[in-house]
Amino acid sequence: MREKHPLHGGNINEEARRIGVGVDQLLDASASLVPFALPQTLQTCLVQAVTSKALKHYPDCSHKNLKEAIANWHKIDPAMVLPGNGASELFTWAARDAATHGISALPSPGFSDYSRALRCWNAPYIHISLPLTWTAQGPQTFPISPKTNVLWITNPHNPTGQLWSRDSIEPLLEKHNLIICDEAFLPLVPNGEKQSLLPLTLNHHNLIIIRSLTKLFSIAGLRLGYAVGTPERLRCWSEYRDPWPLNSLAIEVGTEIMSNMTTLKDWIKKVQQWVSIEGPWLQNELQMIPGIHPLPSATNFQLIKGESSLVQVRESCAKKHVLLRECHSFKELGENYLRISLQNRLNNQRVVDVLSEFLS
Ligand SMILES: Cc1ncc(COP(=O)(O)O)c(C=O)c1O
After folding, report:
1. For ligand 1, is residue 111 a contact (CB within 6 Å)?
2. Separation of 216 CA from ligand 1 center, angstroms?
3. Which domain covers residue 24, as residue numbers?
4. Least buried of 2, 143, 351, 357, by fewest C-beta within 10 Å?
5. Which atom from ligand 1 is nearest to the alpha carbon of 185?
6. Which of 246, 261, 276 is the C-terminal boundary of a domain?
7. Taking the mean position of all CA atoms in its chain, how far away is CA 196?
8. CB count in 10 Å sphere of residue 37
9. Do 257 and 308 share a domain, yes or no?
10. Residue 4 pLDDT more than 70?
């Protein structure tokens, strides 16, 4: 079951070294982050945190203010919230619980970090194939009902961009000892929040939701995510993990983001508007390039299928300083697929232009 370390989008430093250019010269359409600069209030908050005594002292390991701000936003009890050093840290703890229940099902192709987390605990898992064709209609019916003890769901799904309907997932809660639902990209999806399983955590103790602020605010380097689940479960996780998993800057900025509801609502509106305009625009432009077929997506990345291998195309784009996400690390996809992350119009055009150059 051992897999080599998964390839990932967003290896911008490694790619810059490989290509022999500076990071700033690259357009990274391999990691799916919003293309906007951090709101001014958050930049100010970061600067203040750096210049204050925040870095001198150990971080507040109770995460009290941050937990309360997140809980307020979702209208839940702070005891049901656990902030993490990115969603990835929290997958590790979710996987520890998964290990105690038996076999995990990982819908595939899927995000590789879940299997990394499961391997930490020698937890058994199987990959369950998702159908590779779907319509543009959303939300969609979750297409599989695995007979395993634990199910990992990504909503919207990565790398396909499909948004699953809550109604199609809810019945699965009766059939599994544990469901872990990664909603890292959900706040970016227009009307996506209606499909969130988060409200179901109140009545379903076998449900864990994991969210990330990485994508929404383009703060991959800060490392900030949170889990929502039962207070008992999250208390146990707090006891296993190291005493200061979040640094003080992440705590300060996270609290500022989550407690200023007007700024947060406006930001989410702006991001969803961008997805609803640029997503169809990019889809339309890609459709006109010979040799590739863009697949429908509800979110800020787009899978494209080539009529033949796209490995060389990806490499040629990289030499033109445009990074696209390779997909041959997803065994169900192979070399014919690439994933493209949505940019602003200027840079979406640049992506279309380089692809056209190498495919026309
Ligand atoms: C589906 C999904 N969930 C979670 C993450 C990781 O989030 P974080 O940066 O908060 O660890 C990623 C990163 O690519 C992702 O694609």
Report:
1. yes
2. 11
3. 12-30+264-359
4. 2
5. 1
6. 261
7. 14
8. 9
9. no
10. no
Q: Which of 22, 66, 43, 9 is nearest to 220 (CA)?
A: 9
Locate 317 and state its tokens. Answer: 């784009």
Residue 226: pLDDT over 70: yes
Residue 5 lies in a domain: no
Single pTM value for the model: 0.95
Whether 280 and 299 have beta carbons less than 8 Å apart is answered as: no
Same domain, 111 and 26: no
Check residues 6 and 141 and name the one with the higher pLDDT.
141
Q: What are phi and psi of 110, to 5 degrees?
A: -155, 180
Number of other residues whose CB lies within 10 A of the CB of residue 152: 29
User: What 3-state class would DSSP assign to 11?
Assistant: coil
pLDDT in tens, 95-124: 999 999 999 999 999 999 999 999 999 999
What pLDDT does residue 330 have? 85
Classify residue 116: in a domain, yes or no. yes
Given 198, 233, 261, the domain boundary residue is: 261
Residue to probe by mutation, ligand 1, list 212, 218, 226, most atoms within 8 Å of CB: 212
Cα distance between residue 297 and residue 3, in whole Å: 28
